[in-house]
Amino acid sequence: MSPSHVGDLTTPPSKRPCYPSSPPVLLHYAEYLRSVYANAPLTYPDKLSPEVNTPYIKLALVKGTKVNNLQDANEFTHLTLEGDLDLIFQHKEEIPMDKVFTLDNDSKLHLVIVEGAPGIGKSTFVLELCRQWLKMLSLQPFSLVVLLKLRDKEIGLAEGVGDLLPWEDHPTDHATLVEEVRKRHGKGVLFLFDGFDEFPVHLRQTPSASYVMKVLNGKALPHATVLVTSRPSARLHLQPLMRSDSTKLIEVVGFGEEQIQQFAANVFGSESKTLARFDDYLHVNPVIRSMMYNPLNCSIITEVFSETWRSKKRVPHTQTQLYTEMALWRLSRYLSGVGDPLATALPDTLSDIPNDSPLYKQLFEIGKLAYEGKQNSTIIFERIPENCTDLGLLIEHQALYRRKKSITFNFFHLTMQEYMSAFYIAQLPAS
């Protein structure tokens, strides 16, 4: 999203609204939330995506009219998701961030659904919302902006509003806060539920069994405003919640041609020859180029190109080759970090690593984890295999609020989980 689309960023502090009528407990809790968001990492783990202060969050308001992608003449409609499970073929128009929480009519907005492919920037978007609220740049009509990661087991187990308002070390104030929010039926509270596709399927399917689902459908805290992010593949369970008079469907559409060029220029900086070679590389590799619309893919592709070009290796021309190089690069970087001499002696493929080596045994177990996850539609793991490290292929996530001690893991990209699943299958006996 371009800087001109960032709401009231230019409003001087003296002109920003304040809410002296808010009860002290709400003001106190708001300060706690701001301190949490101020210390939260606002970039993708391991710097595998653009930072949120770069103008790369492009939003689309999705209209109800389905379109034929081959015939529709609206150029913006063609800037959409790709992949078997992540297609949105509906008319859309660009929407600035400051219009996300407004409706054209006088109806009250209850639910905003933000969809997008993995790595497209959904979590970056909600973190940017938190950043703007904590700095009092926008979202000031909301007394509280509460970010909750739906991957956290505790959120799925929530039984009431208190479980959605984490506040460590303040049990007395917390009870007062819960009563105040309940008395207001959630008015003035914005809940940001990030990762609906990571929410347990059985809770999605049985709304009455989950307090989160009750908040989403307005049965609980009906005056609250809710934004939920999700992959489109999970829309089946969000569809019943969509109401034409109180719901918005928004898509994070990723990079256009201009953003791709800007991103590459930022990565390669003053290396004009490398940038020119990279442009040539994309020109003759349409499969790789088609992946560049996704910011996370952009990071992966530029990193792999830089590494292979620097080491004078053959640059990848297929998606499989790309992820082979990415796996080897991350593995090499991990081994280098722990002082393992294998870092500079890895073979050209994971399968060529001697199968009696400790490294191979770890890769086999991680591949098995990936495969079993794919079989069970699991992308979030509570632990890594025994006697294994993440090898740079898995990313650790700690709960945002310190009172919740849960740690989860996932592959840094869903395609890497698929790649490691294929590696595992290839190692099994032919029988």
Description:
With 431 residues, this protein is of the alpha/beta class. Helices cover 36% and strands 12% of the residues. Strands 2-1-7-3-6-5-4 form a 7-stranded mixed beta sheet. It has a two-stranded antiparallel sheet with strand order 8-9. A hairpin with an 8-residue loop joins strand 8 and strand 9. Helix 1 packs across helix 3, helix 11 packs across helix 12 and helix 13 packs across helix 14. It is globular. The relative contact order is 0.12. This is NACHT, LRR and PYD domains-containing protein 3. It comes from Geodia barretti (Barrett's horny sponge). InterPro entries: NACHT_NTPase, P-loop_NTPase.
Summarize the entry for a quick read.
With 431 residues, this protein is α/β, with parallel strands linked by helices. Helix content is 36%, strand content 12%.
Spell out the key features of this protein:
globular, about 10% strand, 3 domains, about 425 residues, alpha/beta, NACHT_NTPase, two-stranded antiparallel sheet, NACHT, LRR and PYD domains-containing protein 3, P-loop_NTPase, Rossmann fold, about 35% helix
- Any idea what the CATH architecture of the largest domain is? 3-Layer(aba) Sandwich
Number of domains: 3
Largest sheet: 7 strands, mixed
CATH class of the largest domain: Alpha Beta
Mean pLDDT: 82
Low-confidence stretches: 1-20, 49-55, 82-87
Round the Cα radius of gyration to an integer and report it.
23 Å
SSE arrangement, N to C: HEHEEHEHHEHHEEHHHHHHEEH
Number of strands: 9
Determine the CATH superfamily of the largest domain. Answer: P-loop containing nucleotide triphosphate hydrolases
- Measured by DSSP, the beta-strand proportion falls in 5-15%
What is the helix tally? 14
- Shape call: globular
Q: Walk across the major sheet and give the strand order.
A: 2-1-7-3-6-5-4
Structural class: alpha/beta
Helix content: 25-40%
Q: Might you state the CATH topology name of the largest domain?
A: Rossmann fold
Distance between the termini: 52 Å
Protein name: NACHT, LRR and PYD domains-containing protein 3
Pfam families: NACHT
Domain NACHT: 110-236
Organism: Geodia barretti
